[in-house]
Write a structure and sequence with these properties.
Strand content: 5-15%
Structural class: alpha+beta
Oligomer: single chain
Helix content: 55-70%
CATH topology of the largest domain: Heat Shock Protein 90
Number of helices: 6
Strand order of the largest sheet: 2-4-5-7-6
CATH class of the largest domain: Alpha Beta
Largest sheet: 5 strands, mixed
Number of domains: 2
Length: about 270
Amino acid sequence: MVIEFEPTLSEQTIRRAFSVLILSCSAAGLLTIAALIMWAAAIREERAELLSASRRHLAQLGEMSAVMAHEIRNPLASLKGHAQLLAEKVYDPALLARVDRVVQEAVRLESLTNDLLDFARSGGIQIVAASPADILASAVAATTPERIEMSVSGAPAAWPLDPARIQQLLINLIDNALAVTPAPVKVEARVCRERNALMYAVRDYGPGVSDGERSRIFEPFHTTKLHGTGLGLAVAKRIIDLHNGRIEIVDPPGGGAEFQVLLPALGAPPP
């Protein structure tokens, strides 16, 4: 006589354990996904808070700068005017050198107050259909045109932007390029259409921009110049942000650095 035992209970236990294992793995997976989603949301919230705090800080800094600039401008203009009048009536070379130094410092402070007022301007922009080539030509004419090689052959006939603000940012970029490019080497400035964006590019032949500087170069009051205010590129970056654009720094062949400003068409996504 042969007696066989069918392990039905054991098989049921194994199936039940396997089902519990699958459910446990699924629950663990769902919990992991939920944790990752919550972690990503926390990171986004933290970044948003940091960005909001940075914007509040810049707004407060802008208000303070505007107040300081307005308070300084009138007495400074009086100081500069009287120093210039005094320089015309001084004939002693040693004394004239000192008076000229007063005039030079007054001019430098006047430039600083103008930069502060430009930085404090945070209002909206006036978008019109303007000629990108004419804007670049005006910016070049306002700097040192004999030291600038300009190219407008690829520029569209018109583009929606704020001409005064764009001219201002181009002047800032060209002035920076001229400051680091040894004469008689020329700075290059061009404008063209780049896919669905308008691109302004200003190329210098200076020492270039290090990786460490690129993360801070557009911060207010950050400068590597001996007599710089550190506001020129900060103003340029604000103007670009108002146009929903972006600015890039590339390393062109032959050394130096090229600042590329990309401005999207009206209603187009950021470039």
